[in-house]
Design brief:
Blueprint (H helix, E strand, L loop, with lengths): L9 H5 L4 H6 L5 H10 L4 H8 L6 E6 L4 H16 L4 E6 L4 H4 L12 E5 L5 E6 L3 H13 L9 H14 L7 H17 L9
Parallel strand pairs: 1-2
Antiparallel strand pairs: 1-3, 3-4
Helix pairs in contact: 3-5, 7-8
Length: 201
């Protein structure tokens, strides 16, 4: 199947929200996202890598205010964009931009967040969708011990427990955010031909 043409150019990009404007319109989910933005900082090594990526000029994020994966991962993606010199990020609401959304389906699902990176000529450099593979695996294990085994009248409490435990996996040095950064870094290294120093030995 041929690659779908990505419906984005300078004019369309300009209609997206800056990260600051996106946060401002979030309503009751803003505080949670702001808290994660405060926590989702990059390590020195990660900053060093992304600060050396100058081929990415535009980043398009697809998001929706209600999505848990967006609250957790969009702040980290914003941090990555901030670390790349000259990278301009714009956020588009998924359900208002289905022509764009449907280019980035995840096994036929409209999963979010999506981040797509472009060079100065609007060639796509890479894309990352929803959450790290390691996060999905841990999420399934947690659900199997909480939500999936809770009786009907305890589902809400079980869901709250699941969310709290899963968010807890994003704290500390072994945070699942490190896994997400690794995946984004690998995508850019592969597509841009950036060979890590330790791989040159």
């Amino acid at each position: 199947m041929a690659q779908l043409k990505i419906p984005v150019d300078s004019q369309r990009f300009a209609k997206g929200l800056s990260w600051k404007d996106y946060m401002a319109q979030m309503g009751d989910t803003r505080a949670r996202t702001e808290e994660n933005y405060g926590k989702a900082t990059l390590t020195d090594d990660e900053k060093k890598f992304f600060s050396g990526v100058n081929q990415v000029k535009y980043a398009v994020m697809l998001a929706e205010n209600w999505c848990g994966d967006v609250h957790r991962n969009s702040p980290l993606l914003a941090r990555i964009c901030e670390a790349m010199p000259g990278c301009d990020l714009r956020v588009f609401l998924r359900d208002q931009n289905l022509d764009l959304t449907d280019v980035y389906l995840n096994n036929s699902y409209r999963s979010i967040p999506v981040i797509a990176f472009f060079d100065k000529d609007w060639n796509e450099v890479g894309r990352w969708i929803e959450r790290a593979g390691a996060a999905t695996a841990k999420m399934h294990v947690l659900r199997s011990k909480t939500v999936d085994v809770a009786p009907a009248d305890k589902q809400e409490a079980a869901m709250n427990d699941f969310r709290a435990q899963y968010m807890g996996l994003h704290d500390g040095p072994s945070s699942l955010w490190r896994e997400a950064v690794k995946e984004v870094r690998s995508i850019l290294e592969t597509r841009l031909g950036l060979i890590p120093a330790d791989a040159r030995k």
